[in-house]
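Reading is simple: the token line describes the chain's fold. The lines below illustrate.

. . .
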Amino acid sequence: MTQHFVSTLFAIRSYFTWLPASVVSVLMLVMVGVLAFYCGNLVTTQLLKIPGSRKAALIRRIVSSLRRPTRLMVALLAMLSALPAATGFTATQEEDLQLFFLFLLILTFGFSAIMVFRIMTEVYLNRLAAREETDDIMIRSHQTQIRVLRRLTEILVGIVTVASALMLFPSVKQYGLSLFASAGAASLIVGLSARGLLTNLIAGVQIALTQPIRMEDLIIINGDWCWVEEINATYVVLRVWDWRRHIVPISYFLENQFENWTHNSAAIIGVVFLWVDYQAPMDKIREMLNEIVRGCPLWDGRVFDVQVADCDAHVMSIRIIASARTALQSWDLRCDIREKIIARIRDECPEALPRSRFSMMPPGAGGQEPWERMAPPIGRPQPGSYMGPSMGPGMGPGSASMSSD
């Protein structure tokens, strides 16, 4: 078939003998490339018209994403096949053109392979997420593994593609061989300079396999609540609740301690502390909290309890625990519990609100010394009541005098 194609080109070339040979060769290559480009466009357009089905939809998506690379590869292959008929070039020029076409072809093929791999992984993740019975933890585990390994694969395929394309040229090949001829110093320099990159790449593989973090995990780092937004080959993007972003090296999660609130399950128990007076009716408060929590759609119906957790000289502390499906729902549930229970305590049992107390004692009570007694109530002093230090003429409240016996 190739021989027939070349013979056809020679027959077409015979009609342009009145032009310089080099010009005819260039025009012929351009014509072959343009025709092949439009033929590739026609083929891809027809493939996009495949009737709808699950496999056909995948084919259409791949073809749609690879339309330009496919047309370019078809044009490059056609021009490579037409090179023997381009007799207007010297042997050196023909060899250089062949290397250049092969260089572009290898790069285009590597880019196409990366695109196909990315599309197939996205389709798999979308189908997995569409299953209603699929556990959220399993979805996020697959997302983490596939996204990290996909980025590592893209880097590896990119390096291999560029290296294969550059090795076509003897000058570059010789330069690479001479650069690494002395393996001692060169290896040491490259190893030291790439230590951070290699550490993070290896850490990325460990993250994908062991999964201390997953996509959309809720973690606490530097005192901030963060969601794992992206896991790249060398770094992780964390989304804070106020839309800030933390960019953290991926090796950080293997070398440092951090909290992961959704590692085994997205469900979490939230805690609310309430400080009330000692006269608070605990049975009534428990009933109110039971009504509030059970009537809240954010509660998952698993864990709920009310206990007096602590007390001091003024108030007692009530601990309320309630579970929710996710950490974000747990936050909203706790806020809802606080708002509603405070309103009901204020309206239905105000005696439960915390308050400060002080005691006023009559003079000489309890055998206390004058300076240890409580101040009298504000108002007209009673006969015999203790008035503090002696007050001379013209001395009112807020004034003081010193006297000596």
Summary: Residues 167 and 176 are 9 Å apart (CA to CA). The mean pLDDT is 75. The beta strands are 218-221, 224-231, 235-240, 245-249, 259-260, 268-276, 299-311, 316-324. The chain has twelve helices and eight strands.
